[in-house]
């Protein structure tokens, strides 16, 4: 991917400024996800042999209508997170990536729920396992 593949590139400070709102939204998203998983567990107990991977979201909501509001709330939280310009990568880990440029290369700033500020980055084709800490020189370059 190139710089032009993104609507914008972020600085560390811009992502840090979003952290309080990201924390609020991620906390809500994770809470709704826990409710969703618990209801799926109840459904699996009521219907032996039932498997999540064999059903669409519409089918799941038909079987568990109470999940409609939960699914809508999850979608709204995710939408608000992505409206900031980040990419929601993992709900359980609370990962959101923001494109940036380091020394001419476009990479992702990687924020994880619970971190008071963004403190890591990884290549575009990498993920959480390839996270690297933002060193002082990198932070100076990105601010």
Protein traits:
5-stranded antiparallel sheet, elongated, 143 residues, alpha+beta
Describe this structure in words.
With 143 residues, this protein is α+β, with helices and mostly antiparallel strands. The chain has one domain (6-142). It is 46% helix and 18% strand. The protein has 4 helices and 5 strands, in the order αααβββββα. It has helices at residues 12-46, 57-63, 67-83, 136-142; strands at 87-90, 95-102, 105-112, 120-123, 132-133. Strands 1-2-3-4-5 form a 5-stranded antiparallel beta sheet. The model has no long low-confidence stretch (mean pLDDT 88).
Give a brief outline of the structure.
The protein has helices spanning 12-46, 57-63, 67-83, 136-142, and strands at 87-90, 95-102, 105-112, 120-123, 132-133. It is an alpha+beta fold.
